[in-house]
Write a structure and sequence with these properties.
Radius of gyration: 25 Å
Number of strands: 18
Shape: elongated
Structural class: alpha+beta
Distance between the termini: 51 Å
RNA sequence: GGAGGCGUGGCUGAGCGGUUUAAAGCAGCAUCCUGCUAAGAUGUUGAGGGAGCAAUCCUUCCGAAGGUUCGAAUCCUUCCGCCUCCGCCA
């Protein structure tokens, strides 16, 4: 949710941001008109209520009865206005930062750097699907029989690889002060809404909804970790509050028919280690860079080539002011020519989520009044397991069809190759 | 799933239809006192919205949303959360 005062004070700036995010600037005008009406009505009702109190104190019951009717009518009008005002406000996405490149869609994303040397295989690298089939590591056929398309059984040593990756992510983040956490994967509608993920019907179709419980399955643990501290006020010295969560993620992938239909690149269910930070507003840019640097460190530890993208305004999504994606190099894709595919993403959501979740912090400057303000929230992938498995399989494949495990994982694994 | 109980400020806790603009205590902060510390004294300490150049004023908030009433923390309805006992269960 955007800051109402900011919209009032600087509508042109907001409009510019909305347009960059592919949202009509007319909504801002609509909001301002409704807001003005709302303020008028609020004043009216405040005065009527003050009157009502006075009448009530001196037991002027008849007059109070009449006054009560006036209040009721005004309240009906206020509620109407408030509802429409809220609706528009909730629909407005977060403002992008100035250093998010302006662009309509993913073609506007900017490559910041490419890191790591793409392996020279000395043979034509295979698609991971071909490799896992020979080694019997993933079974999507039986998963389709049991669960439908876009599911998979992960088997054998690949399972151990998953847990090794999780352990590496946890250890790395814990060293930086992140608190490990396993969050609930079912969350209430209001929390999903507050995180900025179900504003439109389209969004709702992307998520699994449990009708009986009026709850959602999380698409990322961010949705469950963010609301943890809703309604709370942090002390300054508790920030930054950093979590590294591990959970299964559920996505309906309703809008991606026909895309990546084979294998486990795009599935309804996968596990993910996810970082989440609550921090002071002035420090969120720095925090964002920290999250990105941890993501990059993890990729470097595994020695997987990747590139970093600065996501453009049109591709940011609602809550983010700025977003970096990491795309891992997958040498077996594209018929052995290789391609980059997204494995990580980190967003600075500034106070957009905190505002709806009502998460604040108190800074106590000595001798001065303590200030209470919204925190900033950020999230970043540590490892999205399915896609990391793919990245490791394709980058570490050997001529004989075996997979040589990254050195950093061998201590966790107890073996050095899958064959 | 069955039965009962409970949600009040940073915390503890009174209030259960009208001086509650929420008592009291604790903790916090500021100042004073003191050689230092402790103790003590005094004052102060929430959030949202609106009006005003401002001092300030009005209003909302006692788990949430509705309702009853001239008047609700207090009564009613629904929901959410927590606790106790029973049942079931990894």
């Amino acid at each position: 949710m955007l800051d109402i005062n900011l919209i009032r004070q600087n509508p042109e700036k907001i409009k510019k941001g909305m347009v960059a995010k592919n949202v009509s600037s007319k909504l801002v005008d609509d909001f301002l008109a409704l807001d003005e009406g709302w303020r008028k009505l609020t004043k009216e009702i405040d005065d009527l209520r003050a009157e009502q109190k006075k009448l009530s104190e001196v037991r002027k019951i008849e007059e109070a009865k009449k006054n009560k009717e006036k209040i009721k009518n005004a309240e009906i009008e206020l509620n109407e206005t408030e509802k429409r005002r809220e609706e528009i406000l909730r629909g407005l996405p977060n403002l992008p930062f100035d250093d998010a490149p302006v662009g309509k869609n993913e073609s506007g994303n900017v490559v910041l750097r490419e890191i790591g040397e793409k392996s020279k295989f000395g043979f034509e690298p295979k698609d991971y699907l071909e490799i896992v089939e020979k080694l019997d590591l993933i079974d999507t056929e039986r998963a389709a029989k049991v669960s439908g398309s876009r599911f998979g059984y992960i088997k054998g040593q690949l399972v151990l690889l998953e847990f090794a990756l999780v352990k590496l992510a946890l250890d790395t983040a814990v060293k930086k002060g992140f608190i490990p956490i396993i969050p609930p994967v079912i969350i209430k509608e209001e929390m999903m809404r507050a995180m900025g993920y179900i504003d439109s019907h389209k969004d709702r179709e992307e998520t699994y909804f449990l009708e009986k419980d009026n709850s959602y399955l999380v698409a990322t643990s961010e949705q469950s970790i963010g609301p943890m501290h809703s309604g709370e006020i942090f002390n300054e010295n508790e920030l930054p509050k950093r979590y590294i969560g591990f959970s299964t993620c559920f996505r309906r992938e309703a809008g991606s028919y026909g895309k990546d239909t084979k294998g486990i690149l795009r599935v309804h269910q996968f596990d993910k280690a996810e970082m989440f930070s609550f921090c002071e507003p002035e420090k969120s840019k720095e925090e964002h860079e920290l999250l990105l640097s941890i993501e990059e460190d993890l990729m470097k530890l595994l020695k997987i080539p990747y590139r970093v993208l600065n996501i453009c305004t049109g591709d940011l999504g609602g809550p983010a002011a700025k977003k970096y994606d990491i795309e891992a190099w997958l040498p077996g894709q594209n018929g052995g020519k290789g391609e980059y595919r997204e494995t990580h993403s980190t967003s600075n959501c500034t106070d957009f989520q905190a505002r709806r979740l009502n998460i604040k912090y108190r800074s106590s400057v000595r001798g001065q009044m303590s200030k209470v303000d919204f925190v900033h929230t950020l999230n970043g992938t540590a490892f999205a397991i399915g896609r990391m498995l793919i990245a490791i399989i394709e980058n570490c494949q050997q001529k004989d069809g075996s997979i040589l495990m990254p050195e950093v994982l061998r201590g966790y694994l107890g073996f050095k190759e899958i064959r």
